[in-house]
Amino acid sequence: MANGTIRYWAAAKAAAGVAEEPYEAETLADALDGARARHPGDLVRVLQRSSFLIDGDPVGRRGHETVRLAEGGTVEVLPPFAGG
């Protein structure tokens, strides 16, 4: 298990009610499952539409269960943004 930080932006931050929180997880899928369990409701919907950065690198279309998390890493949750 790796320990790190999830950072929520824009609508994800509003839905979670926090800007960031710790995770303990092996994969992105595990970290997101934990976030859903801690914040049922709006965050679950926002996560379905969000993109993610792991330590600054985009996840893209990779399966979340295949994305390993590093000790001390950061997961950025980026919901769709309006405008440019």
Structural class by secondary-structure content = alpha+beta
What would the average pLDDT be, to the nearest integer? 95
Shape: globular
Element string (H = helix, E = strand): EHEHHEEE
Question: Helicity level, as a percent range?
Answer: 25-40%
Number of strands: 5
Strand content is 25-35%
> Separation of termini?
37 Å
Radius of gyration, in Å, reads 12 Å
Organism: Streptomyces aureus
Pfam families: ThiS
Protein name: MoaD/ThiS family protein
In short:
Helix content is 30%, strand content 29%.
Q: Topology, please?
A:
Elements: E1 2-8, H1 11-16, E2 20-25, H2 28-38, H3 42-49, E3 51-54, E4 57-58, E5 74-78
Parallel strand pairs: 1-5
Antiparallel strand pairs: 1-2, 3-4, 3-5
Protein name: MoaD/ThiS family protein
InterPro entries: Beta-grasp_dom_sf, Mopterin_synth/thiamin_S_b, ThiS/MoaD-like
